[in-house]
Amino acid sequence: MSILDKRANNAINVNTNTVNGKHVDIAITTHGSDWYWAVTAVMICATFTFMGLAATKPRQHRIFHYITAAITL
């Protein structure tokens, strides 16, 4: 068993469709969890990109990059 097998997506096992003893109609799926993880990864990459671009600008113009990075964080 490799390390990748141990780190499989177990969103359905952790987040079942039973809340407080009641069955709910809306539940997370494996595809939904994968999609959310991908969006989060893209937003983190964008944050680091904006922070890197801020270092190339004069100090007076960095605030705009910092604000954009804060929004994507």
Describe this protein's structure:
The chain has 73 residues and is mostly helical. It has one domain. Helix content is 60%, strand content 5%. A two-stranded antiparallel ribbon has the order 1-2. 0% of the residues are buried. The mean pLDDT is 80.
Summary keywords:
4 helices; two-stranded antiparallel ribbon; 73 residues; membrane; elongated; transmembrane; transmembrane helix; mainly alpha
In short, what is this structure?
The chain has 73 residues and is mostly helical. It is 60% helix and 5% strand.
Compile the SSE list and pairings.
Layout: H1 3-6, H2 11-14, E1 18-19, E2 22-23, H3 30-54, H4 62-72
Antiparallel strand pairs: 1-2
Helix pairs in contact: 3-4
Structure classification: mainly alpha
Give average pLDDT, whole number.
80
**Oligomeric organization of the protein chains:** single chain
Give the domain tally: 1
Shape: elongated
Number of helices: 4
- The end-to-end span amounts to 35 Å
- Classify the helix fraction into a percent range: 55-70%
Give the amount of beta strand, in percent: 5-15%
Q: What low-confidence regions span 5 or more consecutive residues with pLDDT below 50? A: none
Count of DSSP strands: 2
User: Element order, helices and strands?
Assistant: HHEEHH
Strand count, sense and barrel status of the largest sheet are: 2 strands, antiparallel
Sequence of strands across the biggest β-sheet = 1-2
- Global Rg: 19 Å
